[in-house]
TrEMBL record:
Mediates both low-affinity uptake and efflux of sugar across the membrane. Keywords: Cell membrane, Membrane, Repeat, Sugar transport, Transmembrane, Transmembrane helix, Transport. Its main location: membrane. PANTHER family: BIDIRECTIONAL SUGAR TRANSPORTER SWEET, RAG1-ACTIVATING PROTEIN 1. This is Bidirectional sugar transporter SWEET. The chain crosses the membrane at residues 12-38, 59-76, 82-105, 117-139, 145-166, 178-202, 208-229.
Length: 292
């Protein structure tokens, strides 16, 4: 029995060290994810100053809230899901505040549209998933099913802004200028994907780890392009099109919906048509790192 105890000691020590490492990655993931959740604050400060939502969209925040709620549900089902519960609880509260703030200053049409989206995603879809998984599935199969739903939704949300990201990458390559691609945002999103990938890998939860592979790949691609063209001083005006007023939602694994944005920070001289989301043709905005 003494020999067995001695042989088990290194194994137990290894398991303890892995648990500690996973805990550390979970804490780091919560911190970085919280910082990315704060990314829309300049946008809402701008909305508050102008008392108008201008051309900003509510869909990213509704989808982000749906993602946080779904992942929070998975965290409660999962044993030792504290790390997922904490960040997605914070995310759910913050996205709810963003939506309430948006509705306060939105036009009548925007309010009606946002209400429909919230009812569709956050009441209909979420309620349907919770009800069906509780009514027809139990035990470990329920956890597996919800995990797959979360992973598939994460990949879908990664794919949703794919055209916007490809458009941005093409702009950088075509203009040989990185003013459309702020390095700090790409860096933190890539860091977030790496942290949550290793957290999922260490706890052997591949529903967390798998979606982050895509986020890591996009982040590395953007930073490589930045390193290639960062010394180029070309200044180019942004194209006035639908990409200028869209906010892309990036879900970092099961850490919640994390927003990277094309939110204009510096368009004091721009005339924004609220109803059609367009820019007035007789004025242009000064490109900055924030309106990419």
């Amino acid at each position: 029995s003494e020999n067995q105890e001695l042989s088990l000691s290194p194994r137990m020590a290894s398991l303890i060290s892995i648990a500690h490492l996973a805990f550390a990655f979970g804490i780091l993931g919560n911190i970085v994810s919280f910082l990315v959740y704060l990314a829309p604050l300049p946008t809402f400060y701008r909305i508050y100053k102008k008392k108008s939502t201008e051309g900003f969209q509510s869909i990213p925040y509704a989808v982000a809230l749906f993602s946080s709620m779904l992942l929070l549900y998975y965290g409660f089902l999962k044993p030792n899901g504290l790390m997922l519960i904490t960040i997605n609880s914070i995310g759910s509260v913050m996205e709810t505040i963003y939506l309430i703030f948006f509705l306060t200053f939105a036009t009548k049409e925007a309010k009606e549209y946002t209400t429909k989206v919230v009812i569709l995603f956050n009441i209909g879809a979420y309620g349907g998933i919770v009800f069906s998984t509780f009514a027809f599935v139990s035990g470990h199969p329920r956890l597996t099913l919800v995990g797959w739903i979360c992973a598939v939704f994460s990949v879908c949300v990664f794919a949703a802004p794919l055209s916007i990201m490809v458009h941005k990458l093409r702009q950088v390559i075509r203009t040989k200028s990185v003013e459309f691609m702020p390095f700090s945002l790409s860096f933190f999103l890539t860091l977030c994907a790496i942290i949550w990938f290793f957290y999922g890998f260490l706890i052997k939860d591949y529903y967390i780890a798998m979606p982050n592979i895509l986020g890591f790949a996009f982040g590395i691609a953007q930073m490589l392009l930045y390193s290639i063209y960062k010394s180029n001083k070309n200044q180019v005006l942004p194209e006035v099109d639908k990409f200028q007023d869209l906010t892309s939602v990036i879900v970092i694994g099961l850490s919640g919906a994390l927003e990277s944005s094309t939110e204009p920070d510096k368009v004091e001289d721009a005339a924004v048509d609220e109803e059609d989301g367009g820019m007035a043709p007789n004025k242009t905005s000064e490109p900055t790192g924030a309106n990419v």
